[in-house]
Please model this.
Amino acid sequence: MVYVNNDSSQSFLSVNKYDDDIPKDHISRLIKKMVKNDFKYLDDENEKSRGRAAYRKTSLLAIVLYAYYDNHTSCREMEDLSMFHLVYKYLGDGIKPNERTFQRFIKDNKETVSKVLKRTVKLAEEKGFTKFNHIAIDGTIIKANNSNYNIIKAKEIDKLIKIIKKQYDTETIIEKGYKLSKSAYRFLTNPKLTDNEKIKKLQELKKELKKSGQKSIGINDIDARWMLNKKGQTENIISTCNPQLTMNLKMIVSVDINNKPTDHTQLEKQIENVENTIEETPQVISADNGYHTNENINSIQNKDIDLLIPTRKQNKQHNHKLNPNPFHKDHFKYNFETDTYTCPEGKELYYQNSYKIKNTKKGQPNKIKRVYYNKDCYQCPLKDLCTKSEVRIITEYENELAKIIEQRMETPEAQEEYKKRSHTVEPPFGVLKQQKQLNTVHVTGQEEVKNRITLKAIGYNLKRLENMIKNNVEESNSLKNFANNLHRENPDIKFSFIIQ
Model:
């Protein structure tokens, strides 16, 4: 066998540009074009007038966007790739920023990151890939960057403030009977913080604890909240992440962060985020049962939106998890036309009256309690299996709009449309968690977490754009090949194609 003679000491003289070896359809070209056309204003901002010249923000932005597309979310990785990787050199015009530069740029340009996400969405629309008629909303839970062993209890905060102000030493602390946890003692003896900084931090923790109603709080991330995990154990979790996704092409439209354990009050805000991104109101919004609350439903009553949210019973029915007790409320069928319930024995329970229940949540409308029963229950031979009262009473707390949505969800058309939701929501979450490590966001604070997740969402959207562009080219080439073959077989026949 003869091998090619490679002389590693040989020198070559050539004149090349950074993009000479990058394919014409490479995603990096789209990224650079987008940044150059839409974010050129970043370079016009005069950051400083003295000292060493600053890197162009457009160059830094292009590198960061491609890194998140390429699943390299570490700033240390970005530093290395900028030095050695051809595509990163092309995007950054040859600059070699260090890790700290990338960290500072990402932290200081949250607004720009949000604008880039919006631009990727609009780019998909401009290229004719989607219309964003149906938006699916969903959320997940990610763990905070805070150890469960690095917390301070509410009752310890005032003790620590008093100890710091009085300048007590260890002996005095023991003598006065102050019992401190290990984490509280570590905080007290932290040499990196001055006494004033410690007091300021403790006052912030105290304020956040009062707002959350919790008995303890993480020192690293005061935005974190305690929640129960799937095993019923308490776990320190940062917040609920709600990426909004389009129906057909699974583009992530917007990202939001909150520290609520449920989605009960999130619908209105997420719809506003979607409207800000696509600059119009979507025709259809779908969400799971976690969003089915009177507060959420009332929030869209003045909007022209077809809202698809199943009730708890509809959700249980879909998942085949109705209560096994044949006389449970799950097995009482509601009749929309007559406003009655039919019991398992075929008897109708009639609407009797309504009561207003004052909502304890400030600014939220009152709940409406509706009561249904039938006097025939007195003679029913199965009454003892059905109820312990004289008659079986069905109560509900839904408002009129909720009933309309429930009735709509019973139609085949709505059920067929809602089925598309699983194909919309599940793939993006799978990619974000498995490939882009959604659960490992090593920053603290809601705004920082949102910024990093938005970058991951941008990376996902760029991949979707790349695939859609390639598929579009392949379809176009297939049509051209079909037309050429048809012309070869029938050279005397003239024909034309209309593409819609």
